[in-house]
């Protein structure tokens, strides 16, 4: 488009993790979090796509019952980012932008510069047994600004039926998520 300002490169790091219905070991997660980077520079945006974030009853109730689960990831991100950047003080590097779940599926988005983020929206669709949300998807959309340039970003965390024989069910769930 003519006249549209160019945005400098935006670095994203997206991690998917199945929590196995338990609280994570913060130190272990932090120690491995940035191993997939090909550069020593930390990304501008970090997205965690989380499946089986907590036991089913806690996941379905949500709210304050999930605070300890999300807090562990927050602390792991801070610890892992300080280690990756060789920073010894305890100042946070990333600011949480969004933390949302729908049933057992969660998403967390972090930014190095939260002033670049505007217009945050979240949403989710539950599928699975009786569409109660033991499977499904949750998403975050926001506008990222760099000076006069901006772009809209959308991230979706999904948890679909497992096993090879469930391909048809996964495809049906995906269709229902997209429709929702």
Characterize this entry briefly.
This protein is 24% helix and 35% strand.
What does this protein look like?
The chain has 180 residues and is of the alpha+beta class. It has helices at residues 26-32, 56-61, 67-84, 167-179, and strands at residues 12-18, 45-51, 95-102, 105-111, 117-127, 135-146, 149-159. The strands form two sheets. Strands 1-2-4-3 form a four-stranded mixed β-sheet, with no helix packed on it. It has a three-stranded antiparallel β-sheet with strand order 5-6-7, with helices on one face. Helix 1 (26-32) crosses helix 3 (67-84). The longest helix is centred in the middle third of the chain and has 18 residues, at 67-84. The model has no long low-confidence stretch (mean pLDDT 92).
Question: What are the salient characteristics of this protein?
Answer:
180 residues, alpha+beta, 4-stranded mixed sheet, 4 helices
Characterize the largest beta sheet: strand count, sense, and whether it forms a barrel: 4 strands, mixed
SSE succession: EHEHHEEEEEH
Envelope shape? globular
What gap, in angstroms, lies between the N and C termini? Answer: 32 Å
pLDDT average, as an integer?
A: 92
Query: Strand order across the biggest sheet?
Result: 1-2-4-3
Strand-residue proportion:
35-45%
Which stretches are low in confidence, meaning pLDDT under 50 for 5 or more residues running? none
Instruction: Provide the structure class.
Output: alpha+beta
Roughly what percent helix? 10-25%
Count, helices? 4
Strand segment count = 7
User: How large, in whole angstroms, is the Cα Rg?
Assistant: 17 Å
């Amino acid at each position: 488009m003519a006249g549209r300002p160019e945005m400098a490169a935006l670095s994203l790091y997206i991690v998917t993790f199945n929590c196995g219905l338990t609280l994570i070991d913060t130190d272990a997660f932090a120690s491995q979090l940035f191993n997939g980077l090909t550069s020593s520079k930390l990304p501008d945006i970090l997205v965690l796509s989380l499946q089986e974030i907590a036991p089913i009853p806690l996941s379905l109730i949500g709210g304050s019952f999930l605070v300890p689960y999300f807090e562990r990831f927050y602390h792991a991100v801070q610890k892992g980012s300080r280690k990756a950047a060789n920073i010894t003080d305890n100042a946070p590097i990333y600011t949480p932008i969004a933390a949302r779940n729908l049933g057992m599926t969660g998403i967390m988005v972090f930014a190095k510069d939260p002033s670049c983020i505007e217009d945050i929206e979240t949403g989710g669709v539950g599928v699975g047994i009786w569409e109660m949300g033991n499977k499904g998807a949750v998403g975050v959309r926001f506008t990222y600004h760099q000076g006069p340039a901006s772009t809209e970003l959308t991230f979706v965390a999904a948890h679909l039926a497992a096993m090879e024989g469930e391909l048809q069910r996964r495809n049906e769930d995906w269709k229902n998520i997209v429709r929702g």
